[in-house]
């Protein structure tokens, strides 16, 4: 049985109108293959539908990646877990599956001195979550605080905080760099309160809670913020030697100046 001729130009227009770009591009090739190999109509249709879905997923992930502003190259694959015994790859993999904790709005807190991989691990977790379909935003805490302060001046703080709800995970890097003399860091408290038990945060800090009085306007607010953050949280104490320093020393040991060592060369042997 021969099939009736179709108007290819009209079909292309229709697929455009229906916003099916993958099918629009792929149908001539697959139709030809189907004719040649005698596929059933249902088989052809399902192949085309699968391609459209896969392409849609890919575009979504790409968009979410661009929005997340993660540091490039900081992935789980490039993270050396041997350097940090208190963080296990299995635990991080369980976290990046996202099940449960993200739905409940639980938090992750990473503590440790500079150079131990807090930012790297945050981005690695963020990237894996995006690949698993979640939305993430990585930001230096000081940058976000500045934006929220501007929003407060413009009388749109509430909606600025609400807009961040679209991100399942908000990564606030280096919270301890925020100082209350930056004025009005209560915006940070308002953000923490707004997300409490609803939307997750991952916070990195190079200072323990005891030093967080320098961040918030008054001790009561510090206490209230910490209380909310830790209520449902996984805490990693990353107290190891700086990976950066260790890598530099290693490079020096090989007779190369530490200043030339680049992250790519820091991979463990
Ligand atoms: P922190 O945020 O704790 O100051 P970073 O994440 O910026 O530390 O790490 C400093 C540098 O060392 C980065 O280039 C990072 O990729 C690298 N690094 C740190 N820890 C590790 C690790 N365990 N495995 C691989 N690279 C690491
Ligand atoms: Mg960092």
What does this structure look like?
With 269 residues, this protein is an alpha/beta fold. The chain folds into two domains: 8-66, no CATH class; 69-251, P-loop containing nucleotide triphosphate hydrolases (Rossmann fold, 3-Layer(aba) Sandwich). The chain has helices at residues 8-17, 21-37, 41-68, 89-97, 101-104, 118-131, 141-153, 157-163, 186-195, 219-231, 243-253; strands at 107-111, 136-140, 169-173, 200-205, 233-237. It has a five-stranded parallel β-sheet with strand order 2-3-4-1-5. Helix 9 links the parallel strand 3 and strand 4. Helix 2 packs antiparallel against helix 3, helix 4 crosses helix 6 and helix 9 (186-195) packs parallel to helix 10. The longest helix is centred in the first third of the chain and has 28 residues, at 41-68. The structure holds adenosine-5'-diphosphate (ADP) and magnesium ion (MG). Magnesium ion binds next to helix 6.
The geometry reads as: elongated
CATH H-level name of the largest domain... which superfamily?
P-loop containing nucleotide triphosphate hydrolases
Our count of helices gives: 11
Under CATH, the topology of the largest domain is which?
Answer: Rossmann fold
CATH architecture of the largest domain, by name, is: 3-Layer(aba) Sandwich
For the biggest β-sheet, the strand order reads: 2-3-4-1-5
What Rg is obtained from the alpha carbons, in whole angstroms? 25 Å
Q: Write down the CATH class of the largest domain.
A: Alpha Beta
Strand content: 5-15%
- Molecules bound to protein: adenosine-5'-diphosphate, magnesium ion
Q: Sheet with the most strands?
A: 5 strands, parallel
For the record, the count of structural domains works out to 2
Helix content: 40-55%
Number of strands: 5
SS-based class:
alpha/beta
* Cα distance spanning the termini: 65 Å
């Amino acid at each position: 049985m021969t099939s009736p001729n179709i108007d290819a130009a009209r079909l292309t227009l229709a697929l455009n109108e229906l916003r099916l770009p993958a099918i629009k591009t792929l149908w001539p090739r697959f139709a030809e293959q189907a004719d040649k190999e005698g596929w059933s109509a249902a088989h052809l249709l399902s192949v085309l539908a699968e391609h459209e879905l896969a392409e849609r997923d890919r575009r979504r992930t790409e968009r979410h990646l661009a929005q997340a502003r993660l540091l490039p190259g900081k992935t789980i694959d490039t993270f050396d877990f041997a350097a940090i015994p208190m963080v296990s790859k299995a635990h991080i993999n369980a976290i990046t599956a996202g099940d449960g904790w993200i739905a409940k709005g639980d938090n992750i807190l990473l503590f440790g001195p500079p150079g131990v991989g807090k930012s790297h691990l945050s981005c690695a977790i963020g990237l894996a979550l995006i690949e698993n379909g979640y939305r993430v935003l990585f930001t230096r805490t000081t940058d976000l605080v500045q934006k929220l302060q501007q929003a407060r001046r413009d009388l749109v703080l509430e909606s600025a905080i609400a807009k961040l709800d679209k991100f399942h995970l908000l990564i606030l890097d280096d919270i301890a760099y925020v100082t209350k003399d930056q004025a009005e860091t209560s915006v940070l408290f308002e953000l923490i309160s707004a997300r409490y038990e609803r939307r997750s945060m991952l916070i990195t800090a190079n200072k323990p809670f005891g030093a967080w009085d320098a961040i918030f306007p008054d001790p009561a607010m510090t206490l209230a913020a910490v209380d909310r953050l830790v209520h449902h949280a996984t805490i990693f104490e990353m107290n190891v030697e700086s990976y950066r320093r260790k890598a530099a020393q290693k490079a020096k040991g090989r007779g190369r100046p530490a200043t030339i060592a680049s992250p790519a060369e820091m991979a463990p042997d």
